[in-house]
């Protein structure tokens, strides 16, 4: 008999009477699944699933949210159901670049969606891409994924995050006054270059950097997180906490993820942590509601800390980009 998944009610946790304001800084839209990762091209096969050229099948989109795509209407419906004011739609290389699809969605729903753009710095004609995305279209957010699973280092040799290739990216972000999200993958991989990233960031105090997934600490990696936070404790560095429950692989209410956030608040202060869900892929592990209620109903954060994590920090950084 299949074991029933425990719900929030099973833990004696009930929904708060007054929902807290929320902004989701880490979601994704998928017009067409067209990813290329370390296991080759990714092809949709229906039911939210996709298959790599290696034969590996993954559940990319929870079936209830889409068959072969994730539309802006689906995302907005989820945001409204959960009292989320707006969302920043990042590029997720695992699904393939969705620059134009995301931009057009934000154009259609400017009060709910902010688009991020991306590109491969090895594109031969990258200047044409940069001009169109960040000048012609006026996208103000850059998302760079450098992971060796589905990011930059999945398809290229190891790239130094403090080297020439990436400094061209940072300089571009500086010139176009972009907010820069960067996903450095997981500990133990060649892409996970926290010290190099810290050195690079120090050269660009004008750029707001947001490190995805709180540097992606896995189960029982508090020591790694502490070291990363010390290296990245810089005035222009922020962190989103998307997918922390997925990475720690603990049951709701995700006590280990809560502990990681507590440590980040203690080191970085109240103004540097941003909530994100990593919708839709992360919802294969937990529900969208659980992705914020584990913070909202936690006993180890003050009301003020929760308000900053879930809403105020994102409002300060991105509120001016909503129309």
Structure characterization notes:
- It is a single chain.
- The chain is α/β, with parallel strands linked by helices.
- Helix content is 33%, strand content 16%.
- It contains 11 helices and 12 strands.
- Strands 8-9-10-11-12 form a 5-stranded parallel β-sheet. Strands 2-3-4-5 form a 4-stranded antiparallel β-sheet, with no helix packed on it. The chain has a 3-stranded parallel β-sheet with strand order 1-6-7.
- Helix 7 (222-231) packs parallel to helix 9.
- The termini are far apart.
- 44% of the residues are buried.
Write out the strand line-up for the largest beta sheet, numbering strands in chain order: 8-9-10-11-12
Task: Using the alpha-carbon principal axes, give the shape.
Answer: globular
Helical proportion, percent range: 25-40%
Distance between the termini: 51 Å
Overall mean pLDDT stands at 95
Outline the low-pLDDT stretches: 10-17
Number of strands: 12
Share of β-strand residues: 15-25%
Instruction: From the alpha carbons, calculate the radius of gyration and give it in angstroms.
Output: 19 Å
Please trace the helix and strand order, writing H or E for each element: EEEEEHEHEHEHHEHEHEHHEHH
For the biggest sheet, the summary is:
5 strands, parallel
Based on secondary structure, the structural category is: alpha/beta
Q: Helix segment count?
A: 11
């Amino acid at each position: 008999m299949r074991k029933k998944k425990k719900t929030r009610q099973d833990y004696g946790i009930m929904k708060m009477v007054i929902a807290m304001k929320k902004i989701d800084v880490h979601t994704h839209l998928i017009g067409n699944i067209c990813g290329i990762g370390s296991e080759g091209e990714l092809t949709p096969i229906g039911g939210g699933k996709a298959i790599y050229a290696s034969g590996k099948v993954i559940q990319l989109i929870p079936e209830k949210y889409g068959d072969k795509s994730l539309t802006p209407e689906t995302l907005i419906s989820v945001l409204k159901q959960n009292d989320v004011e707006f969302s920043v739609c990042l590029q997720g290389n695992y699904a393939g670049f969705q620059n134009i699809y995301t931009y057009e969605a934000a154009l259609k729903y400017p009060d709910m969606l902010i688009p991020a753009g991306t590109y491969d710095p090895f594109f031969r004609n990258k200047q044409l891409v940069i001009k169109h995305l960040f000048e012609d279209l006026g996208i103000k957010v850059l998302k760079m994924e450098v992971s060796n699973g589905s990011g930059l280092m999945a398809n290229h040799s190891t790239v130094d995050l403090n080297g020439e290739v990436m400094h061209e990216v940072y300089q571009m972000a500086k010139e176009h006054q972009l907010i820069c999200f960067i996903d450095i993958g997981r500990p133990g991989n060649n892409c996970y270059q926290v010290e190099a990233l810290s050195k690079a960031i120090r050269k660009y105090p004008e750029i707001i950097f947001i490190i995805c997934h709180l540097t992606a600490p896995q189960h029982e990696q508090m020591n790694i997180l502490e070291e990363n936070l010390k290296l990245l404790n810089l005035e222009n560095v922020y962190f989103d906490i998307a997918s922390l429950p997925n990475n720690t692989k603990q049951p709701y209410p995700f006590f280990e993820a809560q502990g990681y956030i507590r440590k980040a608040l203690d080191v970085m202060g109240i103004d540097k942590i941003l909530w994100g869900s990593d919708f839709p892929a992360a919802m294969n592990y937990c529900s969208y509601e659980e992705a914020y209620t584990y913070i909202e109903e936690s006993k180890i954060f003050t009301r003020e800390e929760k308000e900053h994590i879930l809403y105020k920090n994102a409002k300060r950084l991105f509120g001016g980009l909503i129309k």
